[in-house]
Write a structure and sequence with these properties.
By secondary structure, the chain is an alpha/beta fold. The chain has a single domain (18-137), classed as Response regulator (Rossmann fold, 3-Layer(aba) Sandwich). It is built from 5 helices and 5 strands, in the order βαβαβαβαβα. The chain has helices at 26-38, 49-58, 76-86, 101-107, 123-137; strands at residues 18-22, 42-46, 63-67, 92-96, 115-118. It has a 5-stranded parallel β-sheet, sandwiched between helices. The longest helix is centred in the last third of the chain and has 15 residues, at 123-137.
Length: 138
């Protein structure tokens, strides 16, 4: 995965960052969304890759944070590939309890396309990874 710089140039409140969360586990989505909103982030939420693409076609976001394993015919790897092809300036953070190499290889997604955060993760850890990924793109 692409290393994330340790410097943080973002406003500590997160108010200048819009994140799209893509997660089919409703409890995980709600928990992380509540935490990030409390930290000042603007959020959009999607339960699968198709909902996420619909958001991305109508809304500018600073970063996509997506689970890998999702129902609906396209997983997080496919979504990351779509983002690479259609929104190349948008950083992607993928998360999963495991990242199958076969799925990664089949999708064409590479380490240069985004960052991987293994599950389970703490919400503060996710916030830090999001801040650093956005700062690296600014």
């Amino acid at each position: 995965m692409t290393p994330i710089p340790q410097s943080n140039t973002l406003d500590a409140s997160g108010h200048d960052v819009t994140v799209l969360l893509v997660e089919d586990d409703v409890l995980q989505l709600i928990g992380l969304a509540d935490f990030l909103r409390a930290a000042g982030f603007r959020l959009f939420e999607a339960f699968n890759a198709h909902e996420a693409m619909a958001v991305l076609e109508t809304t500018d976001v600073d970063l996509v944070f997506s689970d890998v394993n999702m129902p609906g015919g396209m997983d997080g790897l496919g979504l990351a590939t779509w983002i690479r092809d259609h929104r190349p300036a948008t950083p992607v953070i993928l998360t999963s309890a495991m990242l199958p190499a076969r799925a990664r290889d089949a999708s064409g997604w590479t380490e240069d396309d985004g960052t991987f955060l293994p599950k389970p993760y703490g919400f503060a850890e996710a916030e830090n990874v999001i801040r650093r990924a956005v700062a690296a793109r600014r």
